[in-house]
TrEMBL record:
One of the GO BP terms on file: pantothenate biosynthetic process
Species assigned in the record: Ophiobolus disseminans
Functional summary from the UniProt entry: Catalyzes the NADPH-dependent reduction of ketopantoate into pantoic acid.
The Ketopantoate reductase C-terminal domain, residue ranges: 189-316
Keywords linked to the UniProt accession: NADP, Oxidoreductase
Coiled coil: none
InterPro entries: 6-PGluconate_DH-like_C_sf (IPR008927), 6PGD_dom2 (IPR013328), ApbA (IPR003710), KPA_reductase (IPR013752), KPR-Related (IPR051402), KPR_N (IPR013332)
Presence of the UniProt keyword Coiled coil in the record: no
Reactions listed under catalytic activity: (R)-pantoate + NADP(+) = 2-dehydropantoate + NADPH + H(+)
One Pfam family from the record: ApbA
Family in the record: Belongs to the ketopantoate reductase family.
Listed name of the protein: 2-dehydropantoate 2-reductase
């Protein structure tokens, strides 16, 4: 590790999820965050996290930079051990942006993002660096800039990418998150965990984003809704199964039941894709829906409902991009 026993971490994507991990990691590592629209606010006032788990009004002032070139110049001769990517998973952009802060053969890149098929562009860009793939359960929103609301779950599931790569960097990062007080599980193969989470994201995220509705509002909208959601999730399950990540119908029903159980509590969730649509931001349509559809079609899996969601969400994303 770089300085004594404290590893050196750069966060790229200081939004809802990233800031909670920045706060946690700052307890066990030397941290710096790349900030964009929140740069001036955070540089002046720091972040405030209101978390159902860690406490309300948590104030901290991290080291912030405007981009990875500035991060690299501040790092001087001591390279980053980790670049943690918590921006939205929009393909074709981030590897170039983080490159100045990535030391070949040294810096591990940790992808804390939703979706499937998101890792390969990092392996292509950084073929001598460890790539760590992380599935994240952490409902969080940044509103206004610098103020993070975090709900009742915090869990990372981590593994190497590709699965055959050395496990040492992913295991070390898992230990770092634990040492910082977070919840982290190492998995020999992280891909089945990605698909299990995708059951929720590839179904609820586009449906809620396209309808400007919380998940429970969809379920309550008409008698047909529950069966349609189950059918979409079963298509995702079939694609996962065809790609070597077996899931049972019971696991699918469990994922659907989580939203059903929140109806009497009046506790609907606004998935991140809905929040992005409301804020006029580009959506993670390829990472969360498009990649799965393509992987399904390549294996001859029937996924008409998911494909329809992809086409609609893609058109919405392009429309947002034109505004
Ligand atoms: N939010 C949630 O509840 C959950 C999210 N996830 C997943 O976690 C990942 C992160 O999501 P979330 O935290 O919601 O994302 P946010 O949109 O809250 O944060 C992303 C951050 O990345 C920053 N960013 C993007 N591009 C750049 C750039 N070029 N330079 C500097 N900063 C940049 C954004 O800055 P700017 O503000 O300037 O755009 C923003 O602060 C996603 O893959 C999401 O699907 C998973 C579980 C739950
Ligand atoms: C499951 C959920 C809704 C929150 O953890 C999510 O992953 C998202 O908002 O994208």
């Amino acid at each position: 590790m770089s300085s004594g026993t404290r590893p050196k971490v750069l966060l790229f994507g200081a939004g809802g999820v990233g800031t909670v991990y920045l706060w946690l990691l700052s307890k066990a590592a030397d941290t710096t965050a790349v900030c964009r629209s929140n740069f001036y606010v955070v540089k002046r006032d720091g972040f405030i996290i209101n978390s159902s788990i860690f406490g309300q009004g948590l104030h901290f002032k991290p080291e912030v930079v405007r981009d990875c070139e500035e991060a690299a110049s501040k790092a001087a001769s001591v390279p980053y051990d980790y670049v943690v990517v918590c921006s939205k998973a929009i393909p074709g952009i981030v590897p170039n942006l983080i490159a100045p802060a990535v030391t070949p053969g040294k810096t591990a890149i940790v992808l804390v993002q939703n979706g499937v098929g998101i890792e390969q562009e990092y392996t292509d860009a950084f073929d001598s660096n460890p790539i760590i793939s992380a599935v994240v359960y952490l409902p969080a929103t940044q509103r206004p800039a610098g103020v993070i609301a975090h709900g009742e779950v915090e869990k990372l599931q981590l593994g190497s990418y590709p699965t055959s790569a050395s496990q040492i960097p992913a295991r070390a990062f898992t230990e770092l998150i634990r040492a910082a007080g977070g919840t982290a599980e190492f998995h020999d193969d992280i891909q089945p965990r990605r698909w299990f989470k995708l059951l929720i994201n590839a179904s609820w995220n586009p449906i809620c984003g396209l309808t400007l509705s919380k998940d429970t509002d969809i379920l309550e909208s008409c008698d047909e809704a529950g069966a349609v959601l189950l059918a979409v999730m079963m298509e995702i399950r079939d694609i996962a199964n065809a790609n070597g990540c077996a899931m049972t119908k019971e696991e699918v029903e469990y994922q659907l039941s989580r939203a059903q159980a929140r109806i009497p509590l009046n506790a609907g969730i606004e998935p991140s894709m809905l929040q992005d649509v409301q804020a006029g931001r580009r959506i993670e349509v390829e990472a969360i829906v498009g990649n799965a559809v393509r992987m399904g079609k390549a294996k001859g899996v029937q996924c008409d409902r998911l494909e329809m969601l992809y086409v609609l969400a893609k058109a919405l994303d392009l429309q947002i991009g034109r505004r």
